[in-house]
Specification:
mainly alpha, 13 helices
Length: 293
C-alpha cells in the first residue's frame, strides 16, 4: 500500500500542479488567492493538527509525554518572544525552519544514506523552493517583509542566493559519487517537478504559488506519513480516523483565525497570522523529526 500510494501520488502531484498552472494563467489574482486560502485553511492546517496525538503515540511513557508537551509549549513561547524582540530574526528563523521541514518531507527517503549531512541538504532544498518563489514574486514578498519587520530584501540578493543553492543542489550527485552513497530519485523527474513548480510560481500570485507547494507537495504527503505512523496502515478507515482526530484542533484553529480577522485591523491581523504560523511551525517541525526517528 505504501509503495502504491507513493507512485500514484507522485503522478497525481505533477498532474494537479499542471492543472493549477492552467488555473494561474486563466484566472485573476482574486480567484487564485481564494483557491489558495481554501487549500491552506483545510488540508494545510489539518496536516499539523495531530501533533499532540503523534507525541502520545510515540511509544513513550506518560511522564515523558508530559515532558514532550512542556517542550512543545516552550517552543511556541520562545517563538513568540523572539518575534516580539527581534522580528527580522524571527522571520529568517521561520523561513529556515520551514525550509528544513519542506526538504525533510520531500527528500527523507531519497537521501537516507547522507548521514549527518541530511539536515543541511533538507535546508538547502527548502531554501531553493523559497528563493524560487520569492524571485518570481519579489514585490509581494517585500510587502509582507516590510509590514512585519520594517525591512525589505533586494532582488539581486535573492538571485544570488538562488544561483548558489542551485549550484549546491547540482553538486549532490557529484558528492554521492565520490562518497559512494546512493540518491534514490530520478534526476529527470525531479527537474521536471521543479520546472512545473517554477511555472506556477511565475504565473500565479505569491499566495497561490505557496499554497500549491505547501498543500500538494508537502501537506498531503505528510498526512500520509502521519496516518501510517498513527494507525499502522493507510486505508479508508485510517484516513477517516486521522481527520476525526484532527477535527477539534482544526475547528479551534479556524475559529481563532476568524475571530482575529474580524477583531483586528489588517496590519495587526497579518502580524498575528505570521506569529501563529511561526509559533506552530517550530514545534511541528520538532514533532515530525521525533516521529521519523
Amino acid at each position: 500500500m505504501k509503495q502504491v500510494f507513493k507512485i500514484d501520488y507522485q503522478d497525481f502531484m505533477i498532474i494537479i500542479t499542471f492543472f493549477l498552472f492552467w488555473i494561474s494563467i486563466q484566472f485573476g489574482e482574486v480567484i487564485e488567492d481564494t483557491i489558495a486560502y481554501i487549500f491552506v485553511l483545510s488540508l494545510g492546517i489539518i496536516h499539523g493538527a495531530n501533533d499532540l496525538n503523534i507525541l502520545q503515540k510515540n511509544k513513550i511513557k506518560k511522564h515523558n509525554f508530559g515532558k514532550s508537551l512542556f517542550i512543545y509549549l516552550m517552543i511556541i513561547l520562545f517563538c513568540m518572544l523572539t518575534y516580539w524582540i527581534f522580528p527580522f530574526i524571527a522571520m529568517l528563523a521561520f523561513i529556515i525552519l520551514s525550509a528544513y521541514h519542506f526538504g525533510e518531507q520531500h527528500l527523507e527517503k531519497k537521501i537516507a544514506d547522507f548521514g549527518i549531512l541530511k539536515g543541511i541538504v533538507y535546508t538547502i532544498y527548502g531554501l531553493f523552493i523559497f528563493s524560487l518563489l520569492f524571485h518570481e514574486n519579489i514585490a509581494d514578498v517585500n510587502i509582507i517583509f516590510s509590514g512585519l519587520t520594517d525591512t525589505e530584501i533586494s532582488l539581486p540578493l535573492v538571485q544570488y542566493i538562488l544561483i548558489s543553492l542551485s549550484v549546491l543542489l547540482l553538486l549532490l550527485p557529484v558528492y554521492a559519487h565520490f562518497k559512494k552513497v546512493s540518491i534514490k530519485f530520478n534526476y529527470f523527474k525531479e527537474l521536471l517537478y521543479l520546472f512545473v513548480l517554477f511555472l506556477v510560481f511565475k504565473t500565479g500570485s505569491l499566495i497561490f504559488g505557496f499554497a500549491v507547494y505547501f498543500v500538494f507537495w508537502h501537506s498531503i504527503p505528510s498526512i500520509a506519513d502521519q496516518i501510517r505512523f498513527l494507525f499502522g496502515t493507510q486505508n479508508k478507515r485510517s484516513v477517516t480516523k486521522y481527520f476525526k482526530a484532527a477535527l477539534f484542533y482544526w475547528i479551534l484553529s479556524i475559529s481563532g483565525l476568524v475571530i482575529a480577522y474580524y477583531a483586528l485591523d489588517s496590519q495587526l491581523f497579518k502580524t498575528v497570522l505570521f506569529l501563529i504560523l511561526f509559533a506552530v511551525t517550530a514545534p511541528h517541525t520538532w514533532v515530525m523529526k521525533r516521529m521519523k526517528e
